[in-house]
Every structure is written in structure tokens, then in C-alpha cells.
Batch of 2 targets.
Target 1
Amino acid sequence: MVREENWEAFIGDTLFFAKVFIVALALIMDYYLALWYIVVFSVIYILTQQPAFQGLGTCSKLTPLQLEALLTEGNTSRFWLVEFGSSYLSACTRSSRCFPELSITYSNKSLSFGIVDLGLFPNAAEKFGIYLGGGMDQLPVYILFENATGIARFPGLDLEAKPSHPAITKRLISRYFELDLRLLEYVNGKW
């Protein structure tokens, strides 16, 4: 098993592997039992999704118009790191914990954090260069704006569709957007 960043993910992976083991055991005993097991847990999985993380953090939940106004007015932070996701996608729900935790560590007068739910505003995705053509499977997308201009984006704009992206972790986002460096520059008074 790959080392997980938090205990919830570790327990979730352990339970998933236990379910696979039970299916394999049920297949050995009786394949009808295995089929019923798969059907019952598929229904449970579909009907009971993990809720999005609602913990502490300094992330602003924004509409696309609010984000555009904040970026163009220029009287707020110099940098905005914005998560574009959807509250009903499991990939966005799994990664919803790391963004508020990053905002607690790195938020300052120069760097602010925002969240835009493209499930509620799918027409706004094109304005920010996010293509939702075949569905929302490329979400979440993180864009770092400097003075209303997107300067970094994760995952990048690839014309080729990739079957999967790396797991979103605090360490991955922090390294990709160089948040440690931006915090040090803020503390040292370079901004």
C-alpha cells in the first residue's frame, strides 16, 4: 500500500482491499453470493457518497462573477489560488480536505485561497480555460492567478486526455505552486 497523507485515506484503502478480499472469498464459496455482494455494495456506494470537507480554513467560496470581480479590481491579494471543482464528484470530495488545510498554513495578505463549484456554474468553466466536454472527470483544477492572470495551473492543459491524474495532496499542491517560497518571500518583505 502506498503511504497515505491522512488516516481517513488509509482506512478507506484498507476497507476497499477488505471488500475485494471478501468478494474473492465469496467467489470461491458461491458465485451467486459474490454477485449479490457486488450488487448490494454498488447500490450502497452510489447512494451514500462521502460528504465534502467542511472544516476550518480561510478559503472563500466564490461564484465565477465574484472571482472575476476580485481578480479585476486588484484591491485584494496579489495572488489567488483557486480550486475549480464540483461538490458531487468523488475526486473533488476526496481532495476537498487538503485545500482548506493549505489555506490555514499559507494564506496571507499577498496570497488568498478560493473555491469555485463548477457543478453549480458549468457555463463558467470555459471562461477560465477548463474544458468540460466529455464530463467533469478532469476536475479538480487548481489555477494560481497573479493580478488577474493565470500563471500556473494543475493539472496542466493537455490536449491528450489522460486516464488519471496523481492523487491530490497538500504536498503536491504546495510544491507545484511553490507555496513555501511565496510564504518566505512574504515573510521577508519582498511583497
Target 2
Amino acid sequence: MRPLTEEETKVVFEKISKYIGENIKLLVDRPDGNYCFRLHRERIYYMSERLLKLASCIARESLLGSGTCFGKFTKTHKFRLQITALDFLAPYAKHKVWVKPGSEQSFLYGNHVVKSGLGRITENTLQYQGVVVYSMADLPLGFGVAAKSTQECRHADPMALVVFHQADIGEYIRVENELI
């Protein structure tokens, strides 16, 4: 487990900032201690410095993971956020989308959100902005990218895509062997 290089840090923070903006500093400097990001086997882990010290006692070959996996680097060195990061992204999200109860299941199966399933959307959401998807009961379901801005959503066709699917909590069941 090693610290991220400057280039890796830039790539990871750019991706996370698409969803939470400048609130990214709240992830690192938390009131309950300092937290950090570490790379292990092409995966980025988010953990407290206390946990980092404990994990350093374990050999790299034996260590499966430590902390919360935020995502992984692909072979082309692009960073892909995983659903395990949702609990940390949701409280700080700048842009949110709420889906109707009938569209929740479709989203949880990995489908995009269409206008007819859109309950609410945060004002001033831009096109291709990272959004956190919630149920109407304010339960975070996943995250994605806005296919249309808030203004375009108001006048869109009911079957037009409004959110491109990125990750959802259904992945805990569908791809559980790839999450670790």
C-alpha cells in the first residue's frame, strides 16, 4: 500500500470533484481525524491514518485491502469510481437527482434514468455534471452523469435519457466478486 503519485492524485481528485465539488477537502480533513487515499493493487482505498498504521504491519502480498475502496485504475490509467464510495459522496453531493419509485428498480438493474422516471433534480445542474441518484425517500441509490441540464429536462420527451448510469447499489449483488 503506497501513497498516490501527484498524477494519480490529480486524476482521482478530478473524478471525485465532479460529484462533490470543492467539498473534497472535507473528505481528507474530517473532525474525527485525518484521512488519506492509498493505492494497493490498482485500487484506491480511503482510510484513517490510524488504520493506515495498523495496515502497514501486514505484508503487501497478504493484504487484500484496507479501508473503503473508492475505485480502481483501468489498464489505460483512467480512474473508475465504484459503488463503495457512495456513502462518502452522498452527504457532500452538489447535484442530486431523485427517481420515482417505479424507476428505482430499473436504475438498480443498471439502466439509465429516463425523464418519465425523474422525480426531482437539483437546480442549475449542467449537462455531463456528476450527480448522485436518490430514491424519493432520500436513500442514495447510486451515481451517474446528467445527460441533460435542468432546463433541458423540463422540456424533454418523456422517454429521453436524463441521467447516464455509472454505479448503483445493485452492484453489491451483481458484481460482488469484482468489488474487492
